[in-house]
Design brief:
heterodimer; A: about 110 residues; mainly beta; 7-stranded mixed β-sheet; 4-stranded antiparallel β-sheet; about 50% strand; globular; B: about 110 residues; 6-stranded mixed β-sheet
Chain lengths: ~110, ~110
Amino acid sequence: EAGVAQSPRYKIIEKRQSVAFWCNPISGHATLYWYQQILGQGPKLLIQFQNNGVVDDSQLPKDRFSAERLKGVDSTLKIQPAKLEDSAVYLCASSLARGTTEAFFGQGTRLTVV
Amino acid sequence: AQSVSQHNHHVILSEAASLELGCNYSYGGTVNLFWYVQYPGQHLQLLLKYFSGDPLVKGIKGFEAEFIKSKFSFNLRKPSVQWSDTAEYFCAVGSSNTGKLIFGQGTTLQVKP
């Protein structure tokens, strides 16, 4: 079974630039999550999709972050404009269904904002 | 407020030593409990999980954890660690409704050969 695919693996940008991350979940997984992991901390949920609808985006800084999951499969997360404090690993995860199933994580995208 | 607290930030053990990593949580409602592991250069992967039933759960690679509801704890144990257990370990609480995970800050385990 193929895992959660993310790209790029690494990205370095200057502050105020924009950046986009892509995620392809495990086939058939209805639920998709984006987490932000700052160095030395545990992952923090940014946004959760159920198919192509948003379940929870309460922790997403909506003035600069946006995410979409067109057709309920792939997803993109965008930051515009980036700030220094956005430097982190951005993790995508997927699960078969909400609630009582395990989430599978991708390798993540390490973003450095300089 | 919902939160997860891991007792140790960095643990150093010699091979064959016993391991116990503490995890306490604060969460209203029904929860699912998880331990995830991240080996160097790899993605987060599930070590074990508790949804219901027997509070002593066994995971991969000889790890186990015990859910103690009265103490809001879910401590991870392994009787004899190996060098290959060197990794970062995360405790997480999951909503049984949405699946949203709240993670602790992680514990880095270094096992000396």
